[in-house]
Amino acid sequence: TSGASNRPLTMNNSTPATDNEKKKIKGGKSPCSPSRVLHIRRIPNDVTGREIISLGLPFGKVTNLLMLKGKGQAFLEMASIEAAVSMMNYYTPATPYLHNQPVYMQYSNYKELRTDNLHNQARPQAASQGVNAVQHGSLAITSALAAEGGLLPAQGSVLRIVVENVFYPITLEMLYQIFSKFGYVLKIVMFTKNNKFQALLQYADASNAYYAKMSLDGQSIYTGCCTLRIDFSKLTSLKVKYNNDKSRDFTRTDLPFGDGQRTLDASLATAFATQNTIFTSYAGAAGFAPSLGFPQGAVTPSAASGQMTIPGVTGIPGNSVLLVSNLNPEAITPYGLFILFGVYGDVHRVKIMFKKRGIALVQMADATQAQLAINHLNGQRLYGRVMHTTFSKYQTIQLPREGQEDKGLTKDFSNSPLHRFKNPGSKNFQNIFPPSATLHLSNIPPSVTVDDLKNLFASKGSTVKGFKFFQKDCKMALIQLGSVEEAVHALIELHNHDFGEHQHLRVSFSKSTI
Predict the structure, then answer these.
(1) Labelling 400: which of 120, 181, 293, 312 has CA 20 to 30 A away?
(2) Where is the composition biased (Polar residues) (predicted)?
């Protein structure tokens, strides 16, 4: 059974599924109330556990999986009911496809997944951990893949993509939407060779490139056409001279368009969004269903709106305003959101809702940075709650009118000196990593000792597990805390901490461990 357990599942009240439930499942009905566990059926026999897990990743963390391969069924457990509800809301009107076959899902009667056979269940759990590790940029994917029988090869971060049977136009923006769900895309170059559409795409991390290839190779963007063939390129890095409809460097906003006279607007996604009109006029009119079973970036034509949409992205193309919900109203502040979201882009404005303090709007500098924030922060725990991040229907955050009661819940950070990405070509663009328990510290004064820094973080409630100064530069260090959530809180509290004499600590997430 490819490592899936056939032992009886138990609910949290130890009650197995009834025959009546099975009859209802066969009837295609969804009688169950919302649950973290989703029942997926009509799964093709050759579908892997990783592919099932990939259905859930855009909506939050996947915590467990049980596959019943002989029956073409699986149970997928999400980290929260909210994530499961979001997943059901998306797939109910838009049936997902795996290996060109539709699969169907509904809430399960089970409230959680537990098995009596821990050995058999270890591999599906390892697969779940591996896929979640890739989504959150963790190096733990190596051990997780090993548990499923494969090791992460020593390949680079550049992929060569060949699109076969191109029946509809392929745009740079489309490739970015599909591939960015597997990690931070640095550069894309498109060209035609041997009468075939090809592209080179560079990730910030080789593990993201590996998982993108593993997941997308052989998949079709649309049923029967636009099939992706993906290999690793021999190139270690891409050199992009122009930002236009054929090439793009997402770390540089100052590159010319190609005629030597004009440069792109800082909001690159807005500038490129107009390309989608050609694609949607074809695909939307034809009414093609997406063949890519992976919702991570699977492009879905919307004939009604004339725009491309992807799961979790409900705003208009080019929108830079995020809707952040399920926040802890007792702990969250505009400044805290500014610091956290500022790891992934320059935050211009933040607004916490006056009557609903658990909801906020965050306005980023452009849509690319907004998408990056969604990729890394949606589903992250913050002050004891799982934060939900998606695009807002608003295109800008309005500042309160003079005399309007606001209680300091709306802040303008447009001119803040703490913006990390205001300088085009900054190395900060290449050091963007998901939230992690290990933090990178920089701008440390020579007079500050290891104990000083450990005590500083401990004073904010952090558990310090490890600390290491950089050998070549004692102004930088790594500090490992008790959990990812602890590190998130510490970053919010201590980024820009004043050591005195105009020296301020800089804190970022690190991909390294101690």
Answers:
(1) 312
(2) 1-18
CATH class for the domain made up of 158-249: alpha beta
Closest CA to 198 of 168, 161, 150, 173: 161
Single-letter amino acid, residue 459: S
How many residues are present in the chain? Answer: 514
- For the chain, first and last CA: distance in Å? 37
Work out the angle at residue 29's Cα, subtended by the Cα atoms of residues 23 and 34, and round it to the nearest 5 degrees.
Answer: 110
The single residue listed with the structure tokens 């890519």 is 292
Note the pLDDT tens digit of each residue in 269-285: 333 332 232 233 223 32
The closest alpha carbon to 66, from 43, 92, 91, 100, belongs to 43
CB atoms within 10 A of CB 119: 9
Q: pTM above the 0.90 mark?
A: no
Rounded to 10 degrees, what is the CA torsion of 501, 503, 505, 506? 160
Domain ranges in the chain with CATH number 3.30.70.330: 37-107, 158-249, 321-427, 433-509
* CATH number listed for the domain at residues 37-107: 3.30.70.330
Query: What is the three-class DSSP state of 143?
Result: helix
Distance CA 66, CA 473 (A): 48
24: CB partners within 8 A, 6+ apart: 31
